[in-house]
Design goal:
462 residues, mainly beta
C-alpha cells in the first residue's frame, strides 16, 4: 500500500452527526474517522479523470438491478487511517484501554467471577484493575509505533515523554461564527447564524494514511494498475472533510507499513490454554443480524452485533472465523464474482478452537454521513444510515485450546487465531493489510487490529 502524508493548508472541519445551528455548535474539531479520508481519496480519483474500470452496484454477485448497469468507478480503492504523524516521522495510534498508567504496564486484567454478574453469559471473566483507585488517569490518548510494539511484547520499559500524547499536544480546536449558505446561489443567506469548531494541526504534524487501488487496464482482469501512484506521484492538493478544506498530499517511500506488529506466537499459558488478546487500531462496525438464510444459501443465526464481533458466537463466545488457504480464497472470490455463491462444507476452511472470555469496550462512536442524489437507488439524497462503532483501543481477550477433532495443540490454535486477527496475518513483515475484521466498511480501514498476550488478575508477570 502507498503511504500518504496530508498537510493541511488551513483549519479542517470534520463534522459529526450532531445538530449544527443556533446554540448547537458544529463539533468539527475531532480527529477524523477513516470514512473521511477514504471519501476524499475517492473524490480526488474522480476529479483526476484517471482511467478506472466501471462496475455494477452491489457486492458478492448480488446487484441492485437485473440490467448490466456499470456506472460506478474506483471500487477497488482500499484505505486505512488517518493516524497522527509527528514532524520527526513518528506515527501514533490509540492507546490500548488496558493501559491506565503512565507506562506500558497493563493495569486491567481478567479475573474470575466471584458470584452473580450482569455481564453477558458468554463472558467467563470480569476485567479488574490492579492499580490504586483514583479519579485521575495518567495515561495519554495516543502512543507511538515503537511504544505499541514494546507493549505487545511485554517490555515494561518506561514510556518516554515523546512516545505518548494527548489530542492537545498536536492539534488545537478553534471556534468561529459563520453565516448560512444559500444552496441555489452559493452565497451567504444573511439569515442563519451558526458557530463551529475547527481542527488546526500543530506545525509539522501530518495526517498519515495508506491507500491502494487495483484497477483493471482496458477491462482486462489480468492486467492491474495502482492509480494512487499516478494521482500523487508529485505533491498535489486534495479536499478533505467539510467546507472544501485543502491539504497537500505527499507520497512517501516506506519499506514497511508503520503500523504496530502483533504477536504470532509466544502467548502466555494458563491451565493448558494459550491467552491471546486483540487490540483495535481503528474502529470496527458489527451490525445486528437477523436470523434467516444468507445470500450464499446457508442458515444464518441471529446476532446482536454492537460491541460483539459478528464472527463470535453469542451463546458461548466461540470464534467462528476459519483459516482459509490462498487457493481456496481465490476460488471463493471467483465464485462470488460470478454470483454463484459457494458451499461452506466443500473443504479448504479449518475451524479455530478459541473463545472470547472477556473484553474492555468503551462507549461507541457514531458513524454517519450525507449522500448526494443519484438516479439508481437514492434519487433525493439524504442522510446515510447511522452506525455505532466500537472505538479503537478496545481489547478483546481469548482463550485458545487444543482441538481433539483436528489433532492440534493449543499453541497451534493460538497461532491460527493470531493469523486471522492480526492486520498483517501470519507475515509480520507484510506491506499489505490482509485482515480487516469489521463487518462493515473494512475497505475504508475499519477493523484493523493486533494481537498480544495477557495474564490473569493477581498472577505474577511472566
Amino acid at each position: 500500500m502507498n503511504t500518504l502524508l496530508l498537510q493541511p493548508t488551513d483549519v479542517l472541519f470534520f463534522r459529526d452527526g450532531r445538530p449544527m445551528g443556533g446554540a448547537s455548535a458544529g463539533h468539527g474539531a475531532a480527529w477524523p474517522l477513516p470514512t473521511v479520508t477514504d471519501a476524499a481519496l475517492h473524490a480526488a480519483l474522480h476529479r483526476s479523470e484517471l482511467p478506472g474500470h466501471s462496475h455494477r452496484r452491489g457486492g458478492s454477485g448480488i446487484y441492485s438491478n437485473a440490467e448490466d448497469h456499470r456506472d460506478r468507478c474506483f471500487g477497488s480503492l482500499v484505505t486505512a487511517g488517518p493516524f497522527p504523524v509527528s514532524p520527526h516521522g513518528s506515527w501514533f495510534f490509540p492507546r490500548p484501554l488496558d493501559l491506565t498508567g503512565a507506562d506500558l504496564q497493563p493495569t486491567l486484567f481478567p479475573a474470575a467471577l466471584a458470584g452473580a454478574s450482569s455481564l453477558p453469559t458468554l463472558l467467563r471473566y470480569v476485567v479488574a484493575s490492579s492499580a490504586v483507585p483514583t479519579k485521575d488517569s495518567a495515561a495519554k490518548t495516543w502512543i507511538s509505533t515503537s511504544a505499541f510494539d514494546r507493549y505487545l511484547r511485554r517490555d515494561v520499559a518506561t514510556l518516554a515523554a515523546t512516545e505518548a500524547l494527548d489530542d492537545g499536544d498536536f492539534f488545537d480546536s478553534e471556534s468561529t461564527i459563520g453565516i448560512g449558505i444559500d444552496a441555489e446561489r452559493g452565497t451567504q443567506d444573511g439569515e442563519r447564524i451558526y458557530s463551529a469548531h475547527y481542527l488546526r494541526l500543530r506545525e509539522g504534524w501530518r495526517l498519515g494514511l495508506f491507500a491502494k487501488t487495483d484497477e483493471k487496464v482496458n477491462d482486462d482482469p489480468k492486467v492491474r494498475c495502482d492509480l494512487i501512484k499516478q494521482l500523487f506521484n508529485t505533491p498535489d492538493h486534495i479536499i478533505v472533510g467539510g467546507q472544501q478544506r485543502i491539504c497537500t498530499a505527499t507520497q512517501v517511500d516506506s519499506p514497511r507499513l508503520p503500523l504496530p506488529r502483533g504477536l504470532g506466537s509466544g502467548f502466555a499459558v494458563h491451565d493448558g490454554k494459550h491467552l491471546v488478546k486483540w487490540i483495535l487500531l481503528t474502529p470496527a462496525l458489527w451490525p445486528q443480524i437477523e436470523a434467516g438464510e444468507s445470500k450464499r444459501g446457508t442458515v444464518r443465526e441471529a446476532h446482536a452485533g454492537g460491541w460483539l464481533p459478528t464472527w463470535i458466537r453469542p451463546g458461548d463466545g466461540q470464534v467462528l472465523l476459519r483459516q482459509v488457504d490462498e487457493k481456496e480464497r481465490r476460488a471463493r472470490r471467483r465464485s462470488n464474482e460470478r454470483g454463484e455463491g459457494y458451499q461452506t462444507d466443500r473443504g479448504g476452511a479449518v475451524a479455530i478452537s478459541a473463545r472470547l472470555v472477556a473484553a474492555i469496550v468503551p462507549k461507541p462512536i457514531v458513524v454517519t454521513g450525507w449522500a448526494l442524489p443519484n438516479d439508481a437507488d437514492r434519487p433525493e439524497g439524504g442522510a446515510k444510515p447511522t452506525h455505532l462503532a466500537v472505538p479503537a483501543g478496545a481489547v478483546y481477550y481469548f482463550e485458545a485450546h487444543a482441538s481433539h477433532e483436528l489433532g492440534t495443540t493449543a499453541e497451534q490454535e493460538a497461532a491460527k487465531l493470531a493469523d486471522a486477527l492480526n492486520w498483517h496475518g501470519a507475515d509480520s513483515a507484510s506491506t499489505t493489510i490482509k485482515n480487516r475484521r469489521s463487518t462493515l466498511l473494512g475497505e475504508k480501514g475499519f477493523g484493523l487490529g493486533v494481537c498480544g498476550t495477557w495474564r490473569f488478575h493477581g498472577d505474577a508477570p511472566a
